[in-house]
Design a protein that fits this description.
It contains 30 helices and 25 strands. The chain is α/β, with parallel strands linked by helices and about 750 residues long. The strands form 8 sheets. It has a 6-stranded mixed beta sheet with strand order 5-12-13-3-14-15, with helices on both faces. It has a 6-stranded mixed beta sheet with strand order 19-22-23-18-24-25, sandwiched between helices. Strands 2-1-4 form a 3-stranded antiparallel beta sheet, with helices on one face. It binds adenosine-5'-diphosphate (2 copies) and zinc ion (2 copies). One zinc ion (ZN) binds next to loops. The site of one adenosine-5'-diphosphate has 18 residues, from helix 19.
Length: about 750
């Protein structure tokens, strides 16, 4: 029966301590454990990495040379692994040509439908594709937008030409282009533009190039004049940006904006395609409908020829509805989707596929989902399993953990204090175990009973971006505000777009990478390294520069990297520890200098906790303490930042901002990647920030965070066009009795 399990023995990636485990095939296995315990090291760095490597082995040596290189994961054995598909939160790129419709393969069916039953008949399916030369709008090449002059910046209507009414570059008073306009003799130079007649303005802005006879220094000459917008457009917008110098680009870019294409008005298709309709709608109109409404419109198509396509479309659209994405439209560009939305769109794509016996790996699929919608996610995971696939999920949400057939709890703590499996078995068994996960599954936090009063307010007035319905709302200062609501209700639009546009000085703490260079680490990022270098220098009476692995103190063999990459033709790039410095990154003479008996390399090997008991320099201790306060005391000072998880990145950012006062902090789902026990830490930090006089605004679904808010702004009632309203403002206690709020319902459950 060994075929029934994926078997891993002696895994040692990152912090893993010779981990062995069996994952049942064709079941849902959920990995739990605190942030940094080693879940990703097992799931991604061991299982997914091995699957990728096996896949690449199928290719010839020659082909493999062009593929990314996947070294063998550090483990004694990995057996019975089939092909793995990773469904993660990486944003779906793809630019303007990738939309929800194209990525889910729904768009081709819709095109087929129009080519069969659309009236009048215009041709085959590709005529309806904006990615096809025959279907695309010839003006914008299927992009739907074109670059045009930002009219709000081009003119100052309260000025005359003499006063410099044309704000565009090249048209300053007395410039060459300005002189041409003046010399044309067509305008009253002292009249304010607001007093120009429509014809005069049209001429000034849009006139095509024409020859005019004029007097210059007593001579009659022929000059060419054209409207200023026309001229700017020809000179800078219709030209390939890459052919302009960087300086020119910088100068003209502020005057250029993206507007809908003038020919197709954003519909992206040729006029012929747009003329073809079904029940009064063309394909662009259907593509811009919210999926929840589109499915109704499609069901109304009764033509028997259309039946198979209607069936296929309804099935696929229903999957988007089922996973809680009914508020998206097919024409939504995928690079505007959030991480959670991207992951759910990818799930829909995989459900339509016919692959079986695949290992699907999900990274916290509940991200961005309101408690109300989590059961939909669970149903999707179960469907994937029931099709005969193995489903592996890293997840923290108790409501998802519940559907696991098998649970692997990693811990007991993070970093070097984690890396072992503390529980394996059923959900009910987990509840009985005394691991951190087991203990936290059983109780939730109470709503706090004292709410801080607001010190002031920041107002948003009449916001209408995306689905916002003329939203006016006050955000209290000096308190912890949590913005809630189902996915698509408008939380990010309100905070990340409208609010941040007005308050760009706010400190945004997200989970994006803090540094991609292999040379940055927690010590350099937090500034500890500078102080430590100085301390080493003064203790040894040498220059501080010696103690940087980016400069003259660096090992010459590996340039301070500690490792050497060897490119062996036709074989995987081999990474080996530098044999000169043994991975210590510094020259031997530098390592001879000591501080309190330790070399600089010894210090970089210390964890935050060890460094705290070693150093007594005031600034170093403060920075180390901040890292310890955010729960990173297990992190080594020299660990490359590129290896930190999203949650760790977020916390190191928080650590380096903790000492500020009077600032506005904005966080979007900061509990992502955090275990229930980590959330206690996070809440403590948020409270500390508020107590120090800061304003903290958090978008969250996590009920423990909601219960700890001073003030709640609940958006809704639903997503998309049924959302976009503030449906509740008040304390969590008041929210309990807000009958119309979905969040309220789950808070009191
Ligand atoms: P989890 O997924 O449970 O949050 P990870 O598996 O990402 O935890 O990380 C486990 C530990 O290994 C953490 O302390 C993390 O900082 C460390 N780690 C992860 N990747 C690397 C790496 N490439 N090099 C060194 N340490 C790493
Ligand atoms: P939430 O943060 O509550 O999940 P969002 O603010 O992301 O909600 O979305 C609110 C509405 O605005 C949804 O209908 C969403 O599809 C739409 N929307 C969000 N971003 C964009 C965008 N870049 N382009 C078009 N529509 C968008
Ligand atoms: Zn167009
Ligand atoms: Zn070296």
């Amino acid at each position: 029966m060994s075929q029934e399990y994926i078997e891993i023995r002696g895994a040692r990636e990152n912090n893993l301590k010779d981990v062995s485990l069996r994952i049942p095939k064709r079941k849902i296995t959920i990995f739990t454990g605190v942030s940094g315990s080693g879940k990703s090291s097992i799931v991604f760095d061991t299982i997914a990495a091995e699957s990728q490597r096996l896949l690449n082995e199928n290719f010839s040596m020659f082909v493999r040379n062009f593929l990314p290189r996947f070294p063998q994961p550090d483990a004694d054995a990995i057996e019975n692994l089939s092909m793995a598909v990773i469904v993660d939160q990486k944003r779906l790129g793809g630019g303007a040509h990738s939309t929800v419709g194209t990525i889910t393969d729904i768009a081709p069916i819709l095109r087929l439908l129009f080519s069969r039953v659309g009236q009048p008949y215009v041709g085959q399916p590709h005529m309806f594709s904006f990615n096809d030369p025959q279907g695309m709008c010839p003006e914008c090449n299927g992009i739907g937008r074109s670059r045009c002059v930002d009219m709000s910046k081009a003119l100052d209507m309260s000025r005359s030409l003499h006063e410099g009414a044309i704000m565009l570059p090249d048209f300053a008073v007395n410039s060459f282009d300005w002189t041409m306009i003046v010399q044309s003799g067509s305008y009253d130079l002292d009249k304010k533009l607001s007093d120009f007649s429509d014809e005069e303005l049209e001429q000034l802005l849009y006139a095509k190039a024409r020859k005019v006879e004029t007097q210059f220094g007593g001579k009659t000459v022929n000059i060419t004049v054209e409207g200023c917008i026309e001229k700017f457009t020809n000179k800078y917008i219709k030209r390939d940006v890459k052919t302009m110098s960087e300086r020119t680009q910088k100068r003209v870019e502020p005057f250029i904006t993206d507007g809908p294409c003038l020919l197709c008005r954003g519909a992206r298709l040729s006029q012929a395609a747009l003329s073809c309709k079904i029940n009064g709608n063309n394909i662009a109109e259907l593509s811009s409908m919210e999926v929840g409404r589109l499915i109704e419109v499609i069901k109304e198509i009764k033509d028997p020829i259309a039946a198979p396509m209607v069936k296929a479309l309804t099935e696929r659209l229903q999957r988007l509805v089922d996973i809680g994405l009914e508020y998206l439209s097919l024409d939504r560009e995928t690079d505007t989707l959030s991480g959670g939305e991207s992951q759910r769109v990818k799930m829909v794509k995989h459900l339509s596929g016919s692959l079986v016996d695949v290992v699907y790996i999900f990274d916290e699929p509940s991200v961005g989902l309101h408690p109300r919608d989590v059961h939909r996610l669970n149903e999707l995971l179960q469907k994937l399993r029931d099709k005969g696939n193995t489903v592996i999920v890293v997840e923290h949400d108790p409501d998802v953990i519940e559907v696991a057939d098998h649970i692997v709890d990693v811990g007991p703590f993070a970093g070097s204090r984690g890396g072992t499996i503390v529980y394996e078995g059923s959900f009910s068994g987990l509840l009985q175990s005394d691991t951190l996960t087991g203990k936290h599954m059983k109780h939730s936090m109470p709503i706090k009973d004292h709410f801080r009063p607001a010190k002031g307010k920041l107002s948003i007035v009449d916001a209408n971006l995306h689905n916002l319905n003329n939203v006016s709302v006050d955000i209290p200062t000096g308190v912890l505000t949590v913005v809630t609501g189902v996915a698509g209700s408008g939380k990010s639009t309100l905070i990340n777009e409208v609010f941040l546009q007005k308050h760009p000085d706010a400190i945004v703490i997200d989970q994006s990478a803090v540094g991609t260079s292999t040379r940055s680490n927690p010590a350099t990022y937090t500034g500890i390294m500078d102080d430590v270098r100085k301390a080493f220098a003064s203790a040894n009476k040498v220059s501080p520069g010696l103690f940087s692995f980016n400069s003259k103190g660096a090992c010459e063999n590996c340039q301070g990297l500690g490792v050497v990459y060897t490119d062996v033709a036709f074989l995987d790039n081999v990474k080996t520890t530098c044999e000169v410095c043994g991975g210590k990154r510094f020259k031997e003479e530098v390592l001879a200098y000591k501080l309190g008996g330790k070399s600089i390399a010894d210090v970089l090997e210390m964890t935050v906790e060890q460094a705290l008991s070693f150093f007594d320099l005031k600034e170093v201790v403060r920075k180390l303490q901040a890292m310890s306060d955010v729960g990173l005391d297990y992190l080594k000072l020299g660990q490359p930042l590129s290896t930190l998880s999203g949650g760790e990145c977020q916390r190191i950012k928080l650590a380096s901002e903790l000492h500020k006062k009077g600032s506005i902090y904005v966080m979007d789902e900061p509990t992502t990647g955090l275990h229930m026990s980590d959330i206690t830490h996070l809440l403590a930090i948020m409270n500390r920030l508020v107590d120090a006089g800061n304003t903290v605004i958090v978008i969250e679904h996590n009920l423990d965070v909601i219960r700890n808010a001073d003030w709640i702004i609940d958006m809704g009632p639903e997503g998309g066009s049924n959302g976009g309203n503030v449906i509740f403002e008040g304390t969590p206690k008041q929210l309990l009795s807000a009958k119309h709020s979905l969040t309220s319902k789950y808070l009191s459950r």
